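Batch job 17 of 40 flagged for manual review because the log was empty.
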Amino acid sequence: MPQTAIIGAGPAGLTAAYALTKRGARPVVLEADPEYVGGISRTTRYRGYRFDIGGHRFFSKSREVEDLWTEILPDDMLVRDRVSRIYYKRKFFAYPLKASNALWSLGFGEATRCMASYARARVRPRPAPSNFEDVIVNAFGERLYEIFFKAYTEKVWGMKCTEISADWALQRIKGLSLKSAVVNALKLDRLKPGKKEVIKTLIDQFRYPRLGPGMLWEACADRIRAAGGEVRLGCEVDRLELEGGRWRVGFRELSGGGRGELLVDHVVSSAPLSQLVRMVRPAPAPEVLEAAARLRYRDFITVALVADGRSPLPDNWIYIQDADVKVGRVQNFGAWSPEMLPDPESACYGLEYFCFEGDQLWSSTDEELIALGRREMEHLKLVPELVIRDATVVRQRKAYPVYDDHYAAAVDEIRRCLERDYPGIHPIGRNGMHKYNNQDHSMMTGLLAVENILAGERRFDLWRVNQDAEYHEAGEAGAEETITQVESPAGSERS
């Protein structure tokens, strides 16, 4: 049985480790976080309150993934109603939008402008769309783009929509319910010639661990250990050296300052792709290192506000579309699971701020961020008579790989190099592949990496997972055996 080291104890890494233990292997997972497993799907604890880093709904079109969640946490998965809204100019819009709600909230004049803008975009689309703005304006008109896409997208990515790759719109927006809902709500949809009408159902329920997503990943780590594998926390991998066809994995023990190393046959890496390239020895060619340096990541701050009284909001989360506040989204953790709150007569709101490490937001003190969160909640008036009793701040580095206009060429350069020169390296997961995967997509890359390891060849092309821009939230849970057909066709190996 090949010996395997796994970098990162997020959904991708832990899924790979769990799959290996089920086949009789004893992998070693090395995680830099000294306390939590789960990566950005962990559940942070603060004085009895639990909250996500973001929000993580457990829903997949892959039956294999759905069954895996059930297997790991058979008795603690709740079925929750999906409730979320858009907040724009101090008004709530249903998400997905409903015709009566949208028209009433926008008003007759604004709705008319939206329809006229859409008509113009259909008659005179922008030629050769090359960025996010072009794609969205062509699909829905400039006015709908300005209302429901521009401000939030620019908050998330920290750059203008004209600087964001069209891939982002195609991968994450084309299948999103918001777009089709806006169009259908305003009765603007048109069928393409020769195509039948297909109405995709949008999920209105999802599963959720009663103590947050971290509960599932903690249970997964326990199962790995019980099967003879290892999950070592506080271990930061900083060197991968190829020696005679095997890998010497060097890491720092963050708590004591010591060092350790492993000698393995395979390395499954969910570390940021740019970081992986800098760790491998012998070092890659200069052009590959330059490609890695071009990859950027968006960081993330959660300001958690604990308030008196039950939340009057039914929402799991609310999208904040207005540009006059910095907060991008507000989580309502008690609506995810009542057990996230130790006091049922309280509420916990997670204000999400998107930033770059080292910028003004990231460099603010916790006290400054909490004060900002308080001011913006009062300004937004989401909750009347809000009384905040406590607060804390959580920072998350490299939460989102950035889809700018040169990321794709950089990733392709790195991928070719790894497949050609570094046998036994398997990038997986969101940051590991610099690909904006959902949790279930990341898990699938871990499962398929294990299949490749055990087969002794690249039988499955992990880079094809979640390549279908149409896949997102439409359809039924577990309706497909796999997320996408990813078996490598004969002769498809890259040189």
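Reviewer: the log was empty due to a logging misconfiguration, but the result itself is present. Confidence is low (pLDDT under 50) at residues 174-179, 188-202, 468-475, 488-495. Unflagging and moving on to job 18.
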